[in-house]
Amino acid sequence: MPRFTTLILAAASVAAMLAAAAPAQAGYYILRWNNTGVCQVWSEAFAFKPIAWPSGYKVISRPVPTFNDAVTLQVKLRREGRCTL
């Protein structure tokens, strides 16, 4: 039993170190699709980029820290006429 407890404590310590070494939460930014003018919130946490087929896209904002900030920015761009949806 003491070996099992030691193993569990060691695993918990390793998990805590890995969690502390993880990068900070990624930000969000706005993409604008070329063929429709639709703006989309995109997270930097995704391991892939959006597929640029059948239309391309352009990043039209700087990264913002929270999803709520990104949606607020998207609504502002829509009101300014830079986005259609």
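The record above closes out task 2.4. Task 2.5 opens with a second protein, given below.
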Amino acid sequence: MRSFISLLVIACSVGGCASNINIRNADAHAQSGYNAQRNGDWEVARRQFAQAVVNADLGKAEAGGKAMVNYEYGRSLGVTCFWDESEKYLLRSKQFEEDRNHSPYLPLYELGLLTEKQGKSNQAASYFSQLIPLMEKEGLRAKYPLGVADAYERYAFALEATGKFAEAAKNRAEAHTLRAANSEAKPFGQVTPYGSACYKNAS
């Protein structure tokens, strides 16, 4: 399991390095959040990553660590149907990635999935239109061809839903070409099951 100690770098305040406690707490809550995700308990994951985010902020973690805990908190919020909050924290993760000059393709992909699930086709199309050039720039076509194909396919569906049929057909054809050329590639992973574990008080 990934350790956040290496990512959530301690920033000492004027009074000393008391933030070390917050960094350890962020790490512990993040690990518990990952364990809950593995067990399919997204409500516990949501609560654990909420604490990880708070402690990462209090401990003045570096952008990489903040990007990761905000990303996982955003995903957990979306699975439990806290839609607006989910988008907020995924956008926060995106900003932290950009702040450290890293490609924000992971939060962008999740933002596309999140808005797609809600039937917000215009927003989904916007997110996927930003995502695909980044995936291509990062060389993910070679590393994760089926993931890139999935992004093209989802972009096509979103475009189709907004009446842009010609552009949709072009992106769907690209997805088909990628899948055909990589028929033996391994699946790119499990798609976040947004909306599948709605918390009873979610709005």
